[in-house]
């Protein structure tokens, strides 16, 4: 049976992952409006992945005899000044999520909840990838600066994400 303090913290993380899904969907809508359909498609995939992250916590809670409780999801922003600003926010957001995951690991370790420590390792690894991907796209956007050609090719490349 999962301890109440771990259950509470995991329920908060479900909300944080749902917010991630929501903000990336909002970014997808912004990119659609900017006719950057490759970036919109990348964001929709990212949004679905985040929903999947929330579901991993949901399933873990129920497998351990706990219960997922769902809270209201805060409204994300609706517009950004440029693709670079969007990806700056993605990078910052993922760093915050990494911080939350690390806090969960600390909590699970101090509660001696080995199953949760083990479960959280997937997220520790995932965050390394998430931060690296966001930094890489941001770096490319800064390299191409205001080149329309560069943006066109980056948009096409991001649209190839499965
Ligand atoms: Fe972006 O990794 Fe979950 O939130």
How would you summarize this macromolecular structure in one to three sentences?
This protein is mainly α and 162 residues long.
What does this structure look like?
With 162 residues, the chain is mainly α. The protein has a single domain, classed as Ferritin, core subunit, four-helix bundle (Ferritin, Up-down Bundle). The chain has helices at residues 4-33, 37-63, 83-110, 114-144, 148-158. The radius of gyration is 17 Å and the shape is elongated. The mean pLDDT is 97.
Keywords:
single chain, Ferritin, 5 helices, 0% strand, elongated, binds hydroxy diiron-OXO moiety
β-strand amount? under 5%
Task: Give me the CATH superfamily.
Answer: Ferritin, core subunit, four-helix bundle
Structural class based on helices, strands and sheet pairing: mainly alpha
Round the mean pLDDT to the nearest integer and report it. 97
Q: Uncertain runs with pLDDT below 50, 5 residues or more? A: none
């Amino acid at each position: 049976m999962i301890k109440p303090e771990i259950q509470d913290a995991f329920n908060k993380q479900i909300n944080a992952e749902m917010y991630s899904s929501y903000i990336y969907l909002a970014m997808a809508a912004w990119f659609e409006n900017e006719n950057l359909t490759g970036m919109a498609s990348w964001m929709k995939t990212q949004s679905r992945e985040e929903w999947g992250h929330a579901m991993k916590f949901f399933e873990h809670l129920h497998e351990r005899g706990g219960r997922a409780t769902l809270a209201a999801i805060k409204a994300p922003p609706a517009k950004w000044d440029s693709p670079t600003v969007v990806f700056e926010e993605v990078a910052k957001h993922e760093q915050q999520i990494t911080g939350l995951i690390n806090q969960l690991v600390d909590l699970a370790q101090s509660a001696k909840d080995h199953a949760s420590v083990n479960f959280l390792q997937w997220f520790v690894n995932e965050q390394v990838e998430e931060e690296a991907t966001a930094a890489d796209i941001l770096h490319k956007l800064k390299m191409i600066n205001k080149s329309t050609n560069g943006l066109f090719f980056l948009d096409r490349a991001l649209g190839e994400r499965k």
